[in-house]
Amino acid sequence: MIYGHERPRIVTPEQVDLTPETTLGFDCIAFALHVLGVTLNPWQEYFIKRALEILPDGRFRYRTMLLLVARQNGKSLVMTVVALYMMIVSAPGELVLGTAQDLNTSEGTWSDAVDMVEDVPALERKIDTVVKTNGKKALVLGASPSREGAYLGGIGRASGGGGGGGQMITYSQHQYM
Prior knowledge:
The chain is α+β, with helices and mostly antiparallel strands. The chain has a domain at 64-175. 33% of the residues lie in helices and 16% in strands. The chain is built from five helices and six strands, in the order αααβααβββββ. The protein has helices at 25-36, 42-51, 75-90, 103-118, 121-124, and strands at residues 95-100, 127-131, 138-141, 150-156, 168-171, 174-175. Strands 2-3-4-1-5-6 form a six-stranded mixed β-sheet, covered by helices on one side. Strand 5 (168-171) and strand 6 (174-175) form a beta hairpin. Helix 1 packs across helix 2 and helix 1 crosses helix 3. The chain is globular. The protein starts with 24 loop residues before the first helix and ends with a strand.
């Protein structure tokens, strides 16, 4: 049984109804379910819909999203799904970086992403390179490691650079989480 609420207590109000025309979230959720085989919780779906809201000119509504959720409730899964969606569907060829409070956490999330891609034969065929060198892990999808292929790397924040278990995805110069 799932407890809790889909919508957070404190949230920026929607400017428009969330529909497939106003957010890429619906497409990302379908990608998670039908391609990755991941069923998301209602709060995760709501967050993805909000995080991937688009403006009438096609840009994302938010440059930065803040998500506060207790430990062990699926934040890393949300990050992994969104990162893979951006790499494979929404913006192939763009650089996607994941960061966390330390390198081990960042590399764990990166490893989960690699496992998800390798578990789906159609996605596994897209893998160009998987770099497993400590501190330099990378997943490259596409023909080559040039900017023509999508690249997912994991990095840890600098020592003393913040407290807590936050994670962030940076996609092509813009922070989204």
